Amino acid sequence: MPISPILTGASGMVGRAVLLECLDSPHVERVLMINRQPVALQHPKLTELLHRDFTDIGSIRGLLKGYDACFFCAGVSAAGKSEAEYTQLTYTLVTSFARTLHEVNPDLVFTYVSGSGTDRTETSRMMWARVKGRTENALLELGFRAAYMFRLGVLIPDTAVQSKTGWVNTFLTVLRPLFPLLKRFDWATTSSRIGRAMIQVALHPPEQQILENKDINRLAAQRM
């Protein structure tokens, strides 16, 4: 049976890649894309909903009913941010969004784009790893039908997507000749594989909740 996901972060590289996979997949019936700013993309499957404050989605909760998955791809870099600021933009934002969504759709499958090295003990010396770990813990405890933490490591773009961060695009341009080689390794994944893996876990929720690049690649390769 086709799924109908809610998707955030479509203006970023990961979110745009996941969105493109959803629109191309026969296993996805419709997509509700929630953004702070308009995304220049139209498709018969796609509905765009603009909402500025992801920490308070109470005013749009009535529009969230009837969906069976959420691909939460919105996120920010910790570079240049204090722990308090990064916590507000990561833990507070994500968990506030997820709590309201759980109230509306408790049987939903929730996927969250985390990062390789995230620390669920919340004791790491790396600030971002502690905050991401706290976020993962909260999401896994909310009570969704299933929840999955996509801990991305080396990411290779293989669709028409770009990062919002300039230096990342420059770095990827330099590495582009090596992409065919890097794709062979389990510690690297691609933007399209992430999209396919998210669709896969929404269709057939596995037991494993923490997914590293090798797990994402395995799920992406499975038949839906």
Automatic annotation (TrEMBL):
Question: What is the name listed in the Swiss-Prot or TrEMBL entry for this protein?
Answer: NAD-dependent epimerase/dehydratase domain-containing protein
Source superkingdom: Bacteria
Tell me, in one coarse class, where this protein mainly resides: membrane
Q: Specify the NAD-dependent epimerase/dehydratase domain's residue ranges.
A: 7-102
Report the Pfam families cross-referenced here: Epimerase
Where in or outside the cell is it found? Membrane
